[in-house]
């Protein structure tokens, strides 16, 4: 059985992990996830990846969300807070990043282990965003949640994506499988380029939906997804 799941309202990619990203009119997904998404990261000398939190793989680095990244072809271009830019293929990028975060770091391309936290493709719905905004008492910018795909689910209330776990999501040329809810961390509260901080946002999500917002999907059939594509749920 196939049923409607919404329309693609926003597509985003993050060239460098934990930096602000870019809006796209279309993107391509393959087995790894969104092409070139989080393909680069800021790394400490011990190999840990710069993040908004610390864990076995990640190291909390203040200031990363003050930076934005886009692509020029296959090269990431980092926008500094003063508006200056530095290319990822320029050796000065390492010094610029180190000065900004106040520690010795390097910009590094992904090796054998993907840079993703929880999975390759992150999908959220406008219904869930509306539910969180209502509980929060003010509008919430979806960029706080750093999605790849935002689906406009119209007037469907609550969190329709909860019922998508284990099902196929057919959108554009691609087939995704929704595998898990997306757990949230303190990163959703932090200001980033163009987005003010929301100090209590994680509390709102926790109280309303047990820290989860959005879903993680894996790619079962590669293909392009474009703004305005209709998404359908399969079995």
Automatic annotation (TrEMBL):
GO molecular function, one term: molybdenum ion binding
Transmembrane stretches, start-end: none
One Pfam assignment: MOSC
Domain MOSC: 69-234
Alphabetized SUPFAM superfamilies for the sequence: MOSC N-terminal domain-like, PK beta-barrel domain-like
Protein's name according to its UniProt entry: MOSC domain-containing protein
Source organism of this protein record: Nocardioides guangzhouensis
């Amino acid at each position: 059985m196939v049923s409607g799941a919404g329309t693609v309202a926003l597509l985003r990619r993050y060239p460098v992990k934990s930096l602000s990203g870019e809006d796209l009119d279309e993107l391509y997904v393959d087995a790894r996830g969104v092409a070139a998404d989080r393909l680069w990261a800021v790394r400490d000398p011990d190999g840990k990846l710069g993040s908004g939190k610390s864990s076995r793989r990640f190291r909390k680095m203040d200031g990363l969300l003050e930076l934005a990244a886009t692509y020029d072809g296959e090269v990431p271009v980092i926008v500094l807070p003063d508006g200056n830019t530095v290319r990822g293929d320029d050796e000065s990028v390492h010094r610029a990043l180190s000065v900004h975060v106040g520690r010795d770091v390097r910009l590094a391309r992904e090796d054998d282990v993907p840079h993703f936290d929880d999975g390759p493709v992150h999908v959220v719905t406008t219904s869930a965003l509306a539910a969180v905004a209502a509980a929060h008492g003010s509008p919430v910018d979806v960029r706080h949640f750093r999605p790849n795909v935002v689906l406009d689910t119209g007037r469907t209330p609550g969190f329709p994506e909860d019922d998508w776990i284990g099902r196929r999501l057919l959108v554009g040329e691609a087939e995704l499988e929704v595998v898990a809810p997306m757990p949230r961390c303190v990163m959703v509260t932090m200001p980033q380029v163009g987005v003010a901080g929301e100090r209590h946002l994680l509390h709102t999500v926790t109280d309303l939906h047990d820290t989860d917002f959005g879903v993680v999907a894996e790619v079962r059939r590669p293909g392009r997804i474009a703004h305005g594509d209709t998404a359908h749920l399969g079995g």
